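Weekly structure sync, notes
Attendees: PL (lead), two postdocs, one rotation student
Agenda item 3: pending single-chain targets
PL asked that the sequence for the first pending target be pasted directly into the notes so everyone works from the same version. It is reproduced below exactly as submitted, 140 residues in total.
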Amino acid sequence: MSNVMDSTLREQINEASRVAEEFTKIYYDIVDKKKSIQKLYMDNGLLVYNGNGFQGESIGNFLKSLPDTSHQMTTLDAQPILDSSAGKSYLIQVSGTVKISNQKSRAFQQSFLITAQDNKWKIVTDTFRLQDGICGEIKL
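Predicted structure, written out during the meeting:
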């Protein structure tokens, strides 16, 4: 077995990384500015936010109800889903800090599964978790 990645797979990974960078910039801009986020999710999309589940239209309502936020990404990883039945889909992993209202910044972890639908990226599933239990508040 070779340790060398073939050029097709390397290009798929590079494309996943480019899409992830573009997508997350749009996503966090929309979330932080309280714009209409629902359009980024599939109609039957799923959000699990700190263990609380939301589906469909309730996602946008929930995210709009949150206090003001400011997200800063520190790491971003992405990979293609190679199963052809998934269509063009990517798994995106983000970590960073979020400032909620006037509180101190807190660490977070977020994972997205996005898929191409009508020439737009749509979130199939989204899992967000504040990392307080792991490292507590981050003093900035």
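Discussion points:
- The chain has a mean pLDDT of 90.
- The longest helix spans residues 7-32.
Action: rotation student to compare against the earlier draft before next sync.
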